[in-house]
Specification:
Chain A has 114 residues and is mainly β. Chain A is 0% helix and 51% strand. Chain A starts with a strand and ends with a strand. Chain B has 113 residues and is mostly beta strands. Chain B is built from no helices and 11 strands. In chain B, the strands form 2 sheets. In chain B, strands 2, 4, 5, 9, 10 and 11 form a 6-stranded mixed beta sheet that branches. Chain B has a 5-stranded antiparallel beta sheet with strand order 1-3-8-7-6, with no helix packed on it. The chains are: A mainly beta (114), B mainly beta (113).
């Protein structure tokens, strides 16, 4: 399917476990982003990537790791999950040539950490 | 630095009534402004965006927004609410040169029959 997909859509894990959330886009967009959405906070940027092998921290990066070996994939890893990381995670992408910075979002992953 | 304030975390209207969702922004450069809509259990979908071409922007599903520089506002309106408009709406701002969007905290729109 064309567009941006995320997997899994739902995940339940336990405190201390490692979890990886996947994001895949078919547009060959240069930029990709990870956000978390929490009640009362809206969307907060975790990490972003300007191209393969280029990543940088956003507003709330602690406890998360990202990599980007291929343009189309941008996985987010929680190395040791904590309850405070229970959230809905959204991946987004942006075309380098789009001067308006319009981002396109995936369907999200709902993560519960017990 | 940029910021977005959405006035009212929850707005409730009757079906057929005017929808008005408020957004004020702060930006040190001429902004690009966006409204996204999020239906339950879905991702964010672009509703409309202001890119300086016209101050009144028309989007999908009958929504429109007007950019008012003097008021630093970008309020979203729809003349007649439909039940299917019930969703959360996010306003966002970009400076156009740093590829990041700054989001407001969202406004949940409820439409009553």
């Amino acid at each position: 399917d064309a567009g941006i997909t995320q997997s899994p859509r739902y995940k339940i894990t336990e405190t201390g476990r490692q979890v990886t959330l996947m994001c895949h886009q078919t547009w060959s967009h240069s930029y990709m982003f990870w956000y978390r959405q929490d009640l009362g906070h809206g969307l907060r940027l975790i990490y972003y990537s300007a191209a393969a092998d280029i990543t940088d921290k956003g507003e709330v990066p602690d406890g998360y790791v990202v990599s980007r070996s291929k343009t189309e994939n941008f996985p987010l890893t929680l190395e040791s999950a904590t309850r405070s990381q229970t959230s809905v995670y959204f991946c987004a992408s942006k075309d380098r040539g789009d001067f308006t910075d319009t981002q396109y979002f995936g369907p999200g992953t709902r993560l519960t950490v017990l | 630095a940029q910021s977005v304030t959405q006035l009212g975390s929850h707005v409730s209207v009757s079906e057929g009534a005017l929808v008005l969702l408020r957004c004020n922004y702060s930006s040190s450069v001429p902004p690009y402004l966006f409204w996204y809509v999020q239906y339950p259990n879905q991702g964010l979908q672009l509703l409309l965006k202001y890119t300086s071409a016209a101050t009144l922007v028309k989007g999908i599903n009958g929504f429109e927004a007007e950019f008012k520089k003097s008021e630093t506002s970008f309020h979203l309106t729809k003349p007649s609410a439909h039940m299917s408009d019930a969703a959360e709406y996010f306003c966002a701002v970009s400076g156009g040169s740093n590829y990041k969007l700054t989001f407001g905290k969202g406004t949940l729109l409820t439409v009553n029959p």
